[in-house]
Batch of 3 targets.
Target 1
Amino acid sequence: MQPVNWGIISTALIGTAKVIPAMQKSKHCRIQAIASRDLALAKKWATQLGIPKAYGSYEELLADREIEAVYNPLPNHLHVPWSIKAAEAGKHVLCEKPIALDAKEAEQLVAARNRTGKLITEAFMVRSHPQWLRARELVRQGKIGELRAVQGLFTYFLTDPENVRNKADIGGGGLYDIGCYPIVTSRFLFGAEPTRVVGLIERDPVLKIDRLASAILDFPTGQASFMCSTQLVPYQRMQILGTKGRIEVEIPFNAPPDQPCRIFVDDGSALGDASAKEEAFPVCDQYAIQGDLFSEAIRSGKPPEFPLENAVQNMRIIDAIFRSAKAGRWESV
């Protein structure tokens, strides 16, 4: 298969530190260009990462006929407008999460995809990591009986007012940044959609972003609950509980690319973790896998497992959690 020529719009840290190096090691991705509104910055990262071309504007990169696909890690409020511009320029788009600021905005991307015929996908790399594929396989096989509950926790500590994650007017806050992960993985495991949600949010009095959020998602056959925070000790864990056992995902979201990952399968026959059995997964980079799968979809023309409509649904759930926290009641999705 001929590798896909990629361009990166933005020198955001998620791209330069994680995604670009991973895609450069992948089988089917060839990073050919990077763009920034600051040409010197684009040239700096192009040199440091060994990227052939550097552009001083996103428009210049989109005008490059050699570029077939674009990775968009811009701040959240720029995801939709620049993904649309990229698709209209004839590029396929892999866009960072959250794909939009609300479901209505995300629906604009569906219209752009339908209008241009270009592939647009939300970059939830966790769904292609072997540990999550195995967890879903075990659930489907009935290894833990009937799935009834999924519980998640995802936190970090960040109070820098200049960080984009702390700017409320451009889509900052914990629910957009990290709460989206337990939402999408719960849907991944249940293979269904929640019908209603309830949420509780605490906002930073100065930054105005949601710094602590909790939610319950009511699925047809069970419940998912999670808490996320941008101002707590860094930690993450997911518990998957069924009628006959449980699965624990040790590092569910920031799976390291340089060490094995583990899940634990437990039938509950002993207190604590005494009856839990470890399953380890060889070293892999989930960003490289994500890039290869997207490139393969471009070359094959086959629809992705998680089309853009899936991203719109994730935004509907986030919208409902925000509404619930404001209204103090359950909200329909």
Note: The chain is about 35% helix and 30% strand.
Target 2
Amino acid sequence: MSGIVFKDIVKRYGDGPGAALAVKGVSFQVPKGTLTTILGPSGCGKTTILRMIAGLELPTSGQVFIDGREVTTLGPAERNVSMMFQSYALFPHMSVLDNVAYGLRMSGQDKAAARARAVEALRGVGLVGYDERLPSELSGGQQQRVALARALVLEPAVLLFDEPLSNLDARLRREMREEIRALQQRLGLTVAYVTHDQSEALAVSDQIIVMDHGVIAQAGTPQELYEHPASEFVAGFMGEALLLPGTAAADGRVQLGALNLQPRRAVSPGAVKVAVRPEAWRVVPEGQGMPAVLRKSAYLGSVLEYTFDTELGAIFVVSPDLQAALPVGARAGLTLGSHGVSVVEAGR
């Protein structure tokens, strides 16, 4: 078994049958050389899982393997794992070079060799010439690159990220997630990545594990989770989906208000939930599709955001048609495209 393997992991805080269960019998694998994102809302257990991979928490029961070696009871120093924290945790009184070399020096490497490897690590993250600067003299994105170089210089078997982009603005978040993904692929790193941001998870991952109250709600590729959610929870969490009640007929078609659609996967006849993402709606002339009245409109430069009143309630729509902007109060119709629509059985 290579990469990271969790087998039937349980994490309970406290003693006795009433003690809080943070992780409830979780099993998964992060294949060697791939990036898996553990995604979910606050309190779902994702950070606890990351800390158990690092050895900062020990499981109550179950087994943890890294590169085929059981590490369940080993401490962080015995696991060959590096972790990059949300706060970066840089030493403010040390230069950039000394921050990156710190872990090597603590492991017994002599100063000259440690500094030479640190210089190479800084080159790898695009920080040539920043050796003698203090962290306070760097931007947020540059500080994050220093923290990444400090993690990479140790040549870990596994690299862990705990909400690494949450302190950055939108443009820097996009740049850094691209950089992290490029480095991971170029160096063949095994990475476990924790975030609550769905777009971030979709952008960087080979595999996404969606957590819900200490259990795995669904695991799969970004495309699988986005296009084929297994439950209402996953459908609502993966992107800004609106869950609407529908009815599946015996022939497999689904009635959604005035609309009739053919799901891409078969569902049992009866009540279903249809998860519709804002980009799936098509605005058509009045008299076609489902009747709708425009109540709100916002121009965002590249798209228009609409809110329509319909028989199904308020519908949020993202339209790329900037040339045909509708005025508030306009009557129109709504139909559905094929992308961004998922059907799940009600109650799942």
Note: The chain has a mean pLDDT of 90.
Target 3
Amino acid sequence: MPELRKDPILDRWVIISTDRQKRPTDFFLPEVSHREGGFCPFCEGNEDKTPFEIYARGKEDRKVNEPGWSLRVVPNRFPALTIEGDLKKEGEGLYDKITGVGAHEVIIETPDHTETLASMSVEKFIEVLEAYRARITDLKRDKRFKYVLVFKNHGMAAGASLEHSHSQLIALPIIPKRVGEELAGSKRHFNYKERCIYCDIIHQEISQKSRIVLENAHFIVLSPFAPKSPFETWILPKKHLASYENIPSECMESLARIFSETLKRLDKALGSHPYNFILHTSPFGLENIEYYHWHFEIMPKLTKTAGFEWGSGFYINPTSPEEAAGFLREAKI
């Protein structure tokens, strides 16, 4: 029988529609093959075809914007927001607007066109995670910005315009609506119980175990209680930490290992489906708050948002999180 489940953070309802229950094989696609040939501006040797790099990792004797890198960060050639300009707020009657000041950067995760986050070594995955931290820390110095959103679109159906493995970040002069809703929901819980709701979720999931996918000494991977889409998966630090940029360096390997294994298990269970992931962390100036908890959310592109979802704000999910977690735990990698 279908269930309505309430997200305890966002006060958002989802419908777990067991009458249309889907198993991973119902979503399965053949292994995605990478296209051969064609021009890719992200491949090694094409450094002059991208904007000038902001950050890079690679050989010690390498020159800027030349081969020999293992990771590069460059401005997006077609940015959603631009770094130049003053931040100005204006009113037009009852409408508000702000100048489109921000930063839009691309993290080119590997020089190898065929490599993905799921296939790369843990050492290279650490470089990607450290790049996120370094860029957030640097952009925090710009007083015009209040938030940096890191995200990845993997596969054309997930919004990736280039096949070469990359992620992006956008620095914003405002706090995104979704993050604001998480902050508000977390604060309500904290005001009532004097505890972080994410810490409470972790504690309950460890005790129940039915929605846990993986865990190690520092991190936990779980299917949330009220997922808006099949196989939605979260990665959270076990110890309370509001801001991603404050991760201790000694925990980076632990995060890279569990993140890499999670992506491998999703690939195995779903057949290399397109996916998105986002990093939600605390806004600038709120790095040490007690009521929020940074986390990654991974969302395979398995269903489409249609009229009911748009009109009601509900999401219909044909796969229960308990079953999804079970399949990911059992996936052989």
Note: The chain has one domain: 3-21+42-82+94-330.
